[in-house]
């Protein structure tokens, strides 16, 4: 067991930072992809064309009924079979996260869309805009603003969930801490350190969301 | 220019329009009135295709609104509409509200759209509020901006859906004044309203509706002086009393 000194900490810092970069990248990419997928799903779900709405609803309910971990496993083992070559833990995890988060964001976006008065749609259509133009220019901007706090809270959840990539060997922050801990026979201090880092980051983010909510009366 | 021919409409089992027919000529001002739930708002929402109809035909400037092949956005771009609850876009300034449709639907250049917006804002007395957000305006001011927004598309006709019903009494006249000027400039207008003073001063014709039917469709003078139906007489006596 190595003593947890400042010198030791500076020694392991680059590895931990590399891990944090991976965690942040995973979060950001899943967030962007998931939100985009969620917006598309939400628009499909409120479509007046029934089969499309039902298909989107089925997808959302299916994905929300599966453990995220299972999804990550699935794409880790399934996608290589489909494309005929290994795709790596990062890609398969990212696909899993995006598909999973898309289902959650769909529900958030749908609630956001429903929070915008129907008269706004009528006003957009009456002015000669097409339905997609009305959605993009008038409804979505208002919906996104209304759902910003929920969206940010979900982003914080996602940030924590990315630690699941441990199982497919992606070196995110938690995995890096775990590897160092095992290597130096220092698991307890490193898991403690990881906990403190997650706690501080997530708490700060949560408090900021709360402040945003109050100052903009969201 | 606008003809409504034997139009019927249902919401599920409930029939909200029953075999309604009327015509509006170019430059004509028609006031539609009647008790709430009589189908007035539904009727004008059918004219620009915001509400589908199940029977009959509506023709606007030679184009049949309910035909499958009709390009509704293109048709709507030529008919202005003003709503009871204004429906300005809260995330945009007054100017942005006005230039959105001209830029996106008519592909006008921004500079051109803004110049036109300023002219129209001047006309409705809102030029100095061009950069404010709707939330910072009074109801009457918002409705005047909404009228300017509709005019920015250079419409061939304007539909007003109870434009003063959501306003405090002291703001009603500033909106009616703008509408009166518009009428004097020759705009074709269909106005759903309870403002009988406005109807007396400005309208050419009055359409009275009750329970989804057009009960009376007559010259303004005839409607106020000798209403034909009991229903219209009752309505007038109630609404003109105060």
Describe this structure as you would to a colleague.
The complex is a heterodimer of chains A (218) and B (242). In chain A, 33% of the residues are buried. Chain A has a single domain, classed as Orthogonal Bundle (MetI-like fold), CATH 1.10.3720. The longest helix of chain A is centred in the first third of the chain and has 40 residues, at 6-45. Chain A is mainly α. Chain A is built from eight helices and no strands. In chain A, 82% of the residues lie in helices and 0% in strands. In chain A, helix 2 packs across helix 4 (88-114), helix 3 (68-83) crosses helix 4 and helix 5 (118-126) packs across helix 6 (131-161). Chain B is an alpha/beta fold. Chain B contains nine helices and ten strands. The mean pLDDT of chain B is 93. Classes of the chains: A mainly alpha (218), B alpha/beta (242). The interface between A and B is medium-sized, with 17 and 26 residues.
Task: Sum this structure up briefly.
The complex is a heterodimer of chains A (218) and B (242). Chain A is mostly helical and 218 residues long.
DSSP E strands of chain A, number: 0
Any low-confidence stretches of chain A, pLDDT <50, length ≥5? none
CA-based gyration radius of chain B = 18 Å
Q: In whole angstroms, how far apart are the ends of chain B?
A: 36 Å
* Average pLDDT score of chain A: 89
Helix and strand content put the structural class of chain B at alpha/beta
Question: Strand fraction band of chain B?
Answer: 25-35%
């Amino acid at each position: 067991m190595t003593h947890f000194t400042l010198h030791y900490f500076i020694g392991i810092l680059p590895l931990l930072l590399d891990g944090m970069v991976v965690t942040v990248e995973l979060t950001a990419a899943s967030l962007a992809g998931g939100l985009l997928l969620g917006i598309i799903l939400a628009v499909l779900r409120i479509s007046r064309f029934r089969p499309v709405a039902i298909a989107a609803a089925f997808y959302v309910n299916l994905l929300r009924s599966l453990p995220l971990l299972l999804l990550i496993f699935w794409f880790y083992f399934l996608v290589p079979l489909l494309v005929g070559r290994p795709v790596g833990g990062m890609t398969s995890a990212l696909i899993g996260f995006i598909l999973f988060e898309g289902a959650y964001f769909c529900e958030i976006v749908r609630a956001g869309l429903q929070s915008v008065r129907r008269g706004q749609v009528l006003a957009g259509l009456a002015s000669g805009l097409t339905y997609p133009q009305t959605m993009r220019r008038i409804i979505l901007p208002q919906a996104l603003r209304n759902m910003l706090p929920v969206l940010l809270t979900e982003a914080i959840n996602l940030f924590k969930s990315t630690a699941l990539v441990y199982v497919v060997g992606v070196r995110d922050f938690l995995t890096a801490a775990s590897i160092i801990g095992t290597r130096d026979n220092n698991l307890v201090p490193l898991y403690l350190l990881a906990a403190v880092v997650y706690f501080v980051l997530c708490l700060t983010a949560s408090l900021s969301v709360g402040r945003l909510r109050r100052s903009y009366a969201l | 220019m606008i003809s409504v021919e034997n139009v019927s409409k249902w919401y599920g089992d409930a029939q909200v329009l029953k075999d309604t027919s009327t015509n509006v000529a170019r430059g004509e001002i028609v006031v539609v009135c009647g008790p709430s739930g009589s189908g007035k708002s539904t009727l004008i929402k059918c004219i620009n295709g915001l509400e589908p109809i199940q029977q009959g035909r509506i023709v606007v400037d030679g184009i049949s609104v309910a035909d499958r092949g009709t390009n509704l956005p293109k048709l709507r771009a030529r008919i202005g509409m003003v709503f009871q609850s204004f429906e300005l876009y809260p995330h945009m300034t007054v100017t942005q509200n006005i230039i959105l449709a001209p830029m996106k639907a008519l592909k006008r250049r921004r500079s051109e759209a803004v110049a036109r917006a300023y002219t129209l804002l001047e006309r409705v007395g809102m030029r100095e509020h061009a950069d404010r957000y709707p939330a910072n305006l009074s109801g009457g001011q918002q409705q005047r901006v909404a009228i300017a927004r509709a005019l920015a598309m250079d419409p061939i006709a304007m539909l007003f859906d109870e434009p003063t019903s959501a306003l405090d009494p002291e703001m009603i006249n500033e909106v009616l004044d703008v509408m009166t000027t518009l009428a004097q400039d020759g705009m074709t207008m269909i106005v759903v309203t309870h403002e009988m003073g406005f109807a007396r001063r400005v309208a050419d014709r009055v359409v009275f509706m009750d329970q989804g039917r057009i009960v009376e469709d007559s010259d303004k003078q005839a409607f106020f002086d000798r209403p034909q139906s009991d229903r219209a007489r009752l309505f007038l006596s109630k609404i003109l009393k105060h």
